[in-house]
Automatic annotation (TrEMBL):
Any Pfam family the entry gives: Cyt-b5
Full protein name: Cytochrome b5 heme-binding domain-containing protein
Signal peptide location: none
PANTHER family assigned to the protein according to its UniProt record, in alphabetical order: YCGG FAMILY PROTEIN, YQCI_YCGG FAMILY PROTEIN
Top-level taxon in the UniProt lineage: Eukaryota
Domain Cytochrome b5 heme-binding per the UniProt entry, residue ranges: 3-46
UniProt-listed InterPro entries: Cyt_B5-like_heme/steroid-bd, Cyt_B5-like_heme/steroid_sf, Uncharacterised_YqcI/YcgG
Length: 305
């Protein structure tokens, strides 16, 4: 076993090499390993002036491991609270009121990620959420390889609970801006083949180089299907929908979801866009959106001519 300080020397030494784990043992695909290492990327924003005891690394069986797994990350929500909320969410998503077939399948097959965070749209929660999403992206890739077509990540926030639809929408987009900021600061690129303009029909919110469709849930949603005990953001990969379209079953699944929504909630979600000329960003918050609405989001990525 060889000890290292965790400085740029070891990062430069490993840059471009195909390793299976980086720092606190987050599993990454080979291509993503190379991309991250080539960018001299590290997770956790290590303080270069910290002592070796604070940011030590060691090599074990050719894997770069970290001596303090949770260094510089926010404190996690107590495990018992996570388990309770996770079980409550599972009951909610499996209920008749919730129309999304994709989500039900993901939970039935244990092909989902779940995290509980303190306060929605704060830097404190964002750092941990981004970290968890990167972990989930790699697990998601593995699930796809094993033919689990439906996967999802659920981020629940303990507060604020009693907010209007307008305030929730504001907080949702603030949270996405903070996530995007964290993504850019960690050297990530926008998801390939997706637009970073929220008004573009080809928009997909990008984290870790993967495009997601966001579903917002909260206690005061005007639609029964969108009501949960605490604010939640559900991250569904756009690649899954692309794959369903390629298999010619996307339209059929959409119709099943809409029929269930109509049966259990009295109407079809008015924000579900039936054509390809509108951005999916209009659907994120779950509230009825005016046609002239503009999302409060601007990409930090520099445009190239």
């Amino acid at each position: 076993m060889v000890s290292h300080s965790g400085g740029l020397d070891i990062i430069n030494e490993l840059a471009g090499k195909d390793i299976t784990r980086i720092f606190h043992e987050i599993h990454l695909t080979s291509n993503l390993n190379k991309q991250l290492l080539n960018r001299k990327y590290w997770i956790g924003k290590i303080d270069r002036n910290a002592s070796k005891e604070q940011c030590g690394y060691f090599l074990m069986q050719n894997l770069l491991c970290r001596t303090v797994p949770e260094y510089n990350l926010p404190m996690r929500v107590p495990f018992d609270q996570v388990c309770t909320l996770k079980e409550q969410f599972k009951q909610y998503i499996m209920s008749a009121n919730f129309p999304c077939l994709n989500g039900k399948i993901a939970f039935k097959r244990n092909a989902f990620g779940f995290g509980v965070y303190d306060i929605l749209a704060t830097e404190h929660s964002t750092k941990l959420l981004w970290h968890n999403l990167i972990e989930f992206i790699n697990r998601q890739s593995s699930l796809w390889e094993h033919h689990h077509m439906f996967t999802t990540y659920v981020a629940c926030f303990r507060t604020p609970k009693d907010v209007s639809e307008d305030i929730f929408e504001t907080l949702l987009w603030k949270q996405l801006r903070l996530l995007h900021k964290e993504d850019v600061e960690n050297g990530m690129i926008w998801a390939e083949n997706y637009s970073d303009d929220p008004l573009d029909p080809n928009f997909g919110f990008s984290v870790g180089g993967r495009a997601f469709f966001i579903v917002g849930l909260h206690p005061n949603s005007s639609r029964k299907a969108g009501q949960f005990l605490t604010p939640c953001l559900v991250f569904n990969s756009h690649d899954q929908f692309t794959n369903l379209r390629r298999l010619n079953i996307l339209s059929e699944i959409r119709q099943v979801v809409r029929n269930a929504d109509l049966r259990e909630n009295g109407s079809i979600n008015p924000n579900v866009i039936s054509n390809d000329n509108n951005s999916v960003a209009f659907e994120y918050s779950g509230k009825l959106i005016n046609p002239d609405w503009t999302p409060d989001f601007k990409s930090r990525h520099k445009k190239t001519n």
